[in-house]
Amino acid sequence: MKFIGILSALTFSVLVKADFLDNAKRADYFKMTDNAVPTFAITMPSEEYEQLKTTITSNVGFGGFGGFGGFGGGGFGGWGDFGGGNNGGWNFGGNNGGNNGGWNWFGKKKRSVEREEAEKAQLLKRQEFQMDKTKKDFKTKNASMVFTLNGTNKTFNEVTFSLAGVSSQYYAKQAFNIKVRNDELYGRKQFRIRSDAREPTMIRSKLFCDVSNRLGLVNSVSANYIKLSINGEDLGFYVIMDSLKLTYVNIEYGDKDSTNLIQCKDLSAYLTSSSVNGKCLSENEDNPDISAFNQFVSQLDSANTINQMNQVLDVENFFKVTILEWLTGSWDHYTLFGHNYNVYKIPNGKWEVSLYDFDATWGQDLALSFPTAGTPAGLNANNVDTWPKAKFEDWINTQKQHPLAVIMNEDKNLFIKYLQEIIDSTFNPGLLFDRIDEIKDFIRPYVKDDRTKKLGRLNPNTSCTEYTYENFEECSEFTTINNTFIGSQSHSYGLKKWILDRFVFICSTYSVDCSVGQEYLNNFDYRNTTKKSKTTSPKTATQSNPQASSSSCWSNSLGYNCCSDSNTQVYYEDQDGQWGIENNNWCGISRGSNAAAPCWSESLGYKCCSSCGQVYFTDENGRWSVENDDWCGLLANC
Length: 638
Hints:
Blueprint: H1 2-13, H2 28-32, E1 39-43, H3 46-57, H4 113-134, E2 139-149, E3 152-164, E4 175-180, E5 190-194, H5 204-215, E6 223-230, E7 233-242, H6 246-253, E8 261-264, H7 273-276, E9 280-282, H8 291-302, H9 306-310, H10 315-327, E10 341-345, E11 351-355, H11 370-373, H12 392-395, H13 402-410, H14 413-425, H15 429-453, H16 469-475, E12 481-485, E13 488-492, H17 495-509, E14 572-573, E15 578-582, E16 585-588, E17 617-618, E18 623-627, E19 630-633
Parallel strand pairs: 1-6
Antiparallel strand pairs: 1-2, 2-3, 3-4, 4-5, 5-7, 6-7, 8-9, 8-10, 10-11, 12-13, 14-15, 15-16, 17-18, 18-19
Helix pairs in contact: 10-14, 15-17
GO molecular function, one term: hydrolase activity
Protein name: CBM10 domain-containing protein
Keywords: Hydrolase, Repeat, Signal
């Protein structure tokens, strides 16, 4: 049929270009799935699946944060009740944007520095206790899995399947872990399956991993996408990532039963002896000896020069990891929260630091970190425009992070050197915008299907934002949107806008060569950007869609036509008015216009669709769907 031919051509034309990761070290699994979305079909006893669902929906007593009361200068509205109890919450009045204004605990406005630090430590303990107390556990070793890639099945009869995550458990769609026992799946045995429900785009984790892989960061995890089902129930679309466990180091380094793989999961572990005690634990449950790790941290404590640290720590890799955290606004790792990282000693080598969990990157929920980690100078939680403008030296805390203190005290030029390398190779808008477009084009139909059908929403009791398909389209570009995490208001920074704003700030603040992205400096107007088509057009266009233009079109004076339909979706709003997109160009939305949208595709030899169907293709002319086995143009109001 004609319809099948069209879809087949479309399927093979929407690809994620592999050249971004040409020289990256990745497992065969991730290389094989760059341009495919395989299916993980899990089977487990029905009673255990019901137990999993019951565990997810159980109310274990997390009363909510009580609201991050506007922050102002970093103010914290208080943690809510514990499990229906009567605790009144912890009310903090503000820390003056990090300028030692004092945490207003129980109404007292002034504290000594020592008391302030003690109170912050108590807050961290309270947070850790609350999260640990409410974490839901489920694990079964009675699962099996059929893995399907490009029509080929592989069956695994011994699979461990478990509920994962901490904060992710409060969202409608959950996170899971999978371990293949007594077998491998293309060079890997363990995977993190993440819904990435925290953020709107489902691109942040993938992009962070791709950047880390491209930079060659040691043991940087890789990411792609899968479809997941359990006992025949379609749970939708997920991010799949490496899991740095004992199986990983055995496969990569032949280091079986290692006692040198450490996970720093709890807060405020800054690789000092006083901070890691009880917070960084061995991944080897059978032999949890961490004496070698403790000796390593002690050596870091006594080091006063970069050379001394470099005897035991891969300083270059560690420093680049922390710079990447800062560049991406990653608050949930080493530099701010002091957790979500692994430390591993390569046999006959040095200790290496690597990160995991990346949904809170690229400007996602940055303000939620301020009450705990402190507000970097110049940032304001209520003003997202300040978020990309933190300096590296203000982002880190050299009083607590001795390894970074040694580096910055001895050689600040090392920061400029590594920052320049990262800008030249990866962190520049031209390269990353194209990468985002490639990923976005590839996952678009899967995201739309997942969010339209609301697949895998096993927790109906969530009080967190559930993002829409429209949020995916908006936030992966330049639009920042509001969200809610357990009743607390936050923001999802526009993904491309974060990269643009961060790049502009860096180039105006530090002595680095930004010629690789020169066109994005000097008040670059991102409304002029047009997304490059990554697919083959259904028909070569000979003329473009005429744009609405009249004397009443307010955007004409700004160099933009008005949208042909006054009901066009709003993608951006500023002091001039509301902006939509037509033919991959910005257009001003004139609410006073009631003109019907013309059938733009007739001039190209295709009828317009009789109804608003699924978008199968978008080019410079407009959006295309399929009716009666042929292409049709979707009207602007669809």
